[in-house]
Design brief:
single chain; mainly alpha; 2 domains
């Protein structure tokens, strides 16, 4: 999660701003991100030991950053375009219902699941799609 507190941001933002002032293209952005992740993982390896769990943390942080960028920046733009241009298929219209179902799902998560053996009782958009 990139939402660190303001005190931490005051430390990083000036450094990032200086770095950004030297970046001219996508390759340089990629290099800086990759180098930063490599340095972080190398430091983790020094403190622990080289193992899959440690090495995969670099991949995980990149995936998390990409997912957050998609969620905050790209998805709202796609929603606008979907409203302007319409659905691709019926699956899109069923997918929109997922947001409404999420509240139902959240309600049951803590109360209905017991060791993964009790089925979760909620109205999922996929179930409604299957029923037609």
């Amino acid at each position: 999660m990139p939402y660190i507190n303001q005190k931490q941001r005051k430390v990083f933002n000036p450094i990032i701003d200086i770095l950004f002032s030297h970046i001219d293209n996508k390759g340089e952005v990629n290099y800086c991100i990759t180098r930063l992740v490599h340095l972080w993982v190398l430091e983790l390896v020094k403190k622990s030991r080289k193992c899959y769990d440690i090495l995969s943390k670099g991949h995980n942080v990149l995936q998390d950053a990409a997912a957050e960028y998609y969620r905050v920046i790209i998805a709202p733009y796609e929603d606008i375009k979907k409203k302007e241009n319409g659905f691709v298929s019926e699956l899109d219209s069923k997918g929109d219902k997922l947001q409404n179902d999420y509240e139902d799902y959240s309600y049951y998560v803590g109360t209905e699941i017991t060791c993964g053996r009790t089925p979760l009782k909620y109205s999922s958009w996929l179930d409604s799609f299957r029923k037609g």
